[in-house]
Amino acid sequence: MKQLCVKIFASLLFTLSAGQAFSQGAIPENAVNKKWWKEAVVYQVYPRSFKDSDGDGVGDLKGIISKLDYIQSLGIDVVWLNPIYSSPNDDNGYDISDYRSIMKDFGTMDDFNVLLKGLHDRKIKLVMDLVVNHSSDEHEWFRQSRSSRTNPYRDYYHWWPAEKGVPAKRWSFFDEDASAWRLDSTTNSYYLHYFSRKQPDLNWENPKLRQEVYGLMKFWFDKGIDGFRMDVIPFVSKDTAFPPLPAEYNAPARIDYDPNYIEYYARGPHLHEYMQEMNREVLSKYDVMTVGEGIGVRADEALLLVDKARKELNMFFTFETAAVGKDRTDWSPDAEKFKLTDFKTTFSKWINVFKEKGWATVYLGNHDQSRMVSRFGNDKPEYRETSSKMLYTFLLSQRATVYVYAGDEIGMTNIRFKDIKDYRDLQTINHYNLLKRQGKPTDDFLRDEAEFSRENGRTPMQWTGGQNAGFTTGTPWLKINPDHITVNVEAAEKEKNGILSYFRKMIKLRKQLPELVYGNYTVVDKDNPQVFAYTRTLKDKKVLVLLSFSTKVADFTVTPEIGKMGNILINNLPGIATDGNTIHLKPYQAMILRLE
Ligand code: TEU
To answer: Cα–Cα distance between 40 and 59 in angstroms, integer?
Structure first.
């Protein structure tokens, strides 16, 4: 009781003082309204590649269970698991054939229960993947739906009767023919599939389908999970008249995430209505977090999805930050991968979208992206460690919920497959086959894929320097990066000052300093081409984050306007070279300084 009173008093005090400050415009609503999920560090586990317990070469739930102590030792708060539901694995679980059971490769519901309890016992929350823009074509709903035009499940999917003519072009992200419409002979109709032909799009216009989705969400929430990451959620509402695309989008593009283009695919007229309904019927009944995969969501409409007052989602991932530098044209070994000024502008833009309301996310890698250090740092042996630590300093000092990807904490790097035979991902394979069939060259495509393909982020977790990196006793489903001989958890645990221990230290620091979570974010010296610098300020507490993205020594002057240099709170290299107020940052040096 006493504790409760203290708590209430403390929060009252905070609200009052924050309220006063707010009226002066100092503390925005989203800082006053503290939430566990705003403060969380989310650790993403790609189950297929994390740890195999039974020697079939595929990671599984028992494998994850065996690594729970390791996961806990990181200091993270939430685990996000990619889909673990029954699936024929056309797209590694993003094609679900039964939303209420566990994929055989991964184990059983009993294993799931043990995993959930194991996480909760360790005070770690579990977020699952919700993939409801599409199901597998092997889902019972689709089997029924395709069987006849009058089947009760017909309207669970989008069908276009062939007698109406060929539907307007929609490009598929994964299809071998690039088309998102596929003619199904049983009922002489086309069905829509934005992703592979084994991933038919569900029809959210149908209220029965929406109830099915809410039902399955409740099923998992009632089991005790703590949230959902929602796959391509803006796609659920579409213009179901399927109007023709404007001419400029009629080229057989390898679809990228141009929001103007996505306009024709997503964010349809009912998106917010559906999200509000979902919130009312499901989310509002549980203390859970939601993060949408915000494909195509523009900054000027971001708050529609996550403004608390609108009762939709908590957060979403933007695709724009992941796109920085993807338009690369210079492939010489020492070429700049991206302009730091672009990186600063894009990331800061997305942090500032949520300055007052809503809440941001930040990530540098996931199962669809290259490895963080290869993409945004520098994976050459002399820089791999320092630049990985620098990137963690960035992530863990952002005004956002931080999403980190398993394997980055030991500095895993891109495998850079050269041979198409090494790929398992349908996205790469189908596009390669398409080019071949069209008689087009594949060299540029393969070079791009070596750098950016999803397999770079999917190679198995490297636990040891031994056989198969300690991932499996069998044959791994995807090749293991040969660098596991030196880059592995066992070795990392022995390094007192390695990436892993820095990651743990940085998480601890974030937990100690609320200004790193809630403080105002101000970029300083924004045109500096080598250094990313910003301050984080909460009431009278202010810190300066300095990040060198350069292979050269980079100077940064702490001007009186920025503040007076105080203690170094963390530094990814020993020591600091200064000359008055100017700091000479070594290549990829990162530090956080207290400002007085
Ligand atoms: O990804 C959405 C998406 O658009 C992907 O195509 C992704 O951006 C692209 O592959 C990057 O190269 C989600 C999931 O994260 C992805 O793994 C799934 O394959 C996809 O949806 C379909 O469910």
So the answer is: 25
Parallel, antiparallel or unpaired: strands 361-363 and 401-405: parallel
> Which of 44, 137, 232 has the most ligand 1 atoms within 8 A of CB, as the residue to mutate?
232
| Neighbour-count burial of 372, counting CB atoms closer than 10 A to its CB (0-12 exposed, 13-18 middle, 19+ buried) | buried
Q: State the distance from the centre of ligand 1 to the C-alpha of 591, rounded, in angstroms.
A: 34
368 is catalytic: no
- 429 C-alpha to ligand 1 centroid (Å): 15
CA distance 152 to 13: 57
**Nearest CA residue ID for atom 10, ligand 1:** 368
Beta-bridge partners for 41: 402
Sign of the CA dihedral with 9 first, then 11, 12, and 14 last: positive
* Beta carbon of 174 within 6 Å of any ligand 1 atom: no
In the sheet that holds 227-230, the strands lie side by side as: 315-317, 289-293, 227-230, 125-130, 78-81, 41-45, 401-405, 361-363
State how far the Cα of 239 lies from the Cα of 264, in Å rounded to an integer.
Answer: 7
CA pair distance 547, 398, nearest whole angstrom: 12
Residue 459 Cβ inside 6 Å of ligand 1? The answer reads: no
Catalytic position from the list 137, 231, 307, 312 = 231
DSSP H or E segment with residue 443: helix 443-452
Contact present, 178 and 169 (Cβ < 8 Å): no
The Cα 243–Cα 410 span in angstroms is 48
**How buried is 290 (Cβ within 10 angstroms: 0-12 exposed, 13-18 middle, 19+ buried)?**
buried
Chain-centroid distance, C-alpha 164: 40
d(Cα 581, Cα 596) in Å, to the nearest integer?
A: 13
Q: What is the mean pLDDT of each run of 10 residues along the chain (596 residues)?
A: 36 36 57 92 99 98 99 98 98 98 98 99 98 98 98 98 95 88 98 97 98 98 98 95 83 54 82 98 98 94 97 97 90 90 98 97 98 98 98 98 98 98 96 92 95 97 98 98 98 98 98 98 97 97 98 97 97 96 98 97
Specify the pLDDT at position 17.
37
Residue ranges of E strands in 215-277: 227-230
Is the C-beta atom of 302 inside 6 A of ligand 1? no
Q: What is the pLDDT of residue 3?
A: 38
52 is catalytic: no
For atom 22 of ligand 1, the residue with the nearest CA is: 94
Catalytic residue chosen out of the listed positions 137, 201, 293, 408:
293
- Tell which residue, 323, 317, 319, 363, has the closest CA to residue 343: 323
- Please report how the helices 207-223 and 271-281 are oriented relative to each other, as an axis angle in degrees rounded to 10: 40
